[in-house]
Amino acid sequence: IYRLNKQGYDFRYQVVGGGDRSFLMSLSEKYGISDKVQFLGSMPHEKVFEYLDNIDLYIQPSKQEGLPRALVEAMSRGCPAIGSNTGGIPELLNKELTFKKGSVKELCNLLKRINKEEMLKEAKRNFEKAKEYSEDLLERSRTAFYKEFVGISSN
């Protein structure tokens, strides 16, 4: 946020979720951007979708990750999204919308490059992609896998 706003942009960042935020808070104070960073803390599940429906862009900047359920939920709400190139994130997002984990420079370049037209296109793509991770579809896949596994094991 500091780097981008120093270049004339007006980015704001909201952090949702529990956990220790002291490091991020100290960074925002150190760089004088406390007014641009908002720590919302944990949210009741019913409020998460309302929150996602009102953001411009979802960012999953993980340094390590499995398949991030929070990213899938954001995609299911039609949020344009970007994320680091770790874990299952590249499986969910277009390669052009991922950045090297931990690379502030790549993240900044991506945020400067992305435009409203691309965000709209990605919002639609993400909405469709998230359907592949619906609970019903995943349960059918698991059941089929278990039936196949049991069939192989008993032979």
What share of residues are in beta strands? 5-15%
- What series of H and E elements makes up the topology? HEHEHEHEHEHHH
Low-confidence spans: none
What share of the residues lie within helices?
40-55%
Cα distance spanning the termini: 59 Å
Put simply, the count of helices is 8
Secondary structural class: mainly alpha
- Whole-number radius of gyration? 18 Å
Arithmetic mean pLDDT: 90
| Secondary structure tally: strands | 5
Q: Strand count, sense and closure of the main sheet?
A: 3 strands, parallel
Shape: elongated
What spatial order of strands do you see in the largest sheet?
3-4-5
Tags for this model:
mainly alpha, 5 strands, two-stranded parallel ribbon, 8 helices, 12% strand, 50% helix, three-stranded parallel β-sheet
Give structural notes.
This protein is elongated. The chain is built from eight helices and five strands; from the N terminus they run H-E-H-E-H-E-H-E-H-E-H-H-H. The mean pLDDT is 90. The protein is mainly α and 155 residues long. The strands form two sheets. The chain has a three-stranded parallel beta sheet, with helices on both faces. The chain has a two-stranded parallel sheet with strand order 1-2.
In short:
With 155 residues, the chain is mainly alpha-helical. The chain contains 8 helices and 5 strands.
